[in-house]
Amino acid sequence: MTWTPADIPDQTGRAVLVTGATSGLGLAAATALARSGARVLLTARDPERGNAALERVQRSGDAELVELDLADLDSVRRAAADVRARTGDALGVLMNNAGVMATPPAVTVDGFELQIGTNHLGHAALTWLLMPALRAAGAARVVTLSSLAHHGPGLDLGDLHFAHRPYRPTRAYSQSKLANLLFTAELDRRLRATGDDVIAVAAHPGLTDTELLGNSLRRRGPEWLATAGRLVNRLITQPVERGVLPQLYAATAPQVRGGDYIGPGGPAETRGQPGPARRSRTAQDPELTRRLWVATAEATGVPPDPE
Question: Which end of the chain, C or N, has fewer beta carbons within 10 A?
Answer without folding.
Answer: C
